[in-house]
Amino acid sequence: MKHYPAEFKANAVALYRSRPGATINSVAADLGVNTETLRNWIRAADGRRTGGRAAPGRPAEAQGLEAEVLALRRRVGELEEERDILQKAAKYFAGATRW
């Protein structure tokens, strides 16, 4: 199974939507991807299910938002760690220049 970057998927969906009268088959052939793969990307972009199951009682959009929040929290943690390292390095070098 091939894995495509999110940007490629978004561009493929945008390309399909920008061509009035184009078929999924023709756009998929132009891009060299499977027709069903492109169809699933379009459904996902529309917020429709692509065969996966949403958790009971929660819409797929809520799950997507929760996943985004988790990813953003992870990124904030990484950035805070990088900031702390840089602060420690700045203190070290500031102390090393004093005689």
How are the elements arranged and paired?
Layout lengths: L5 H13 L5 H8 L3 H12 L13 H37 L3
Helix pairs in contact: 1-3, 2-3
What features would you describe in this structure?
It is elongated and about 70 Å long. By secondary structure, the protein is an all-alpha fold. The chain has 2 domains: 1-52, Homeodomain-like (Arc Repressor Mutant, subunit A, Orthogonal Bundle), CATH 1.10.10.60; 58-99. The model has no long low-confidence stretch (mean pLDDT 85). It is built from 4 helices and no strands.
- Please name the CATH topology of the largest domain: Arc Repressor Mutant, subunit A
- Count of helical segments? 4
**Could you say how many structural domains there are in total?**
2
The CATH class of the largest domain is Mainly Alpha
- Structural class designation: mainly alpha
Percent strand equals: under 5%
What is the global morphology? elongated
Low-pLDDT parts are: none
What's the N-to-C terminus distance? Answer: 61 Å
At CATH's second level, what is the architecture of the largest domain?
A: Orthogonal Bundle
What string, H for helix and E for strand, traces the elements in order? Answer: HHHH
Secondary structure: helix percent: over 70%
Record field, number of beta strands: 0
Mean pLDDT, all residues? 85
| CATH homology superfamily name of the largest domain | Homeodomain-like
What value does the Rg take, in angstroms?
Answer: 22 Å
The quaternary state of the protein chains shown equals single chain
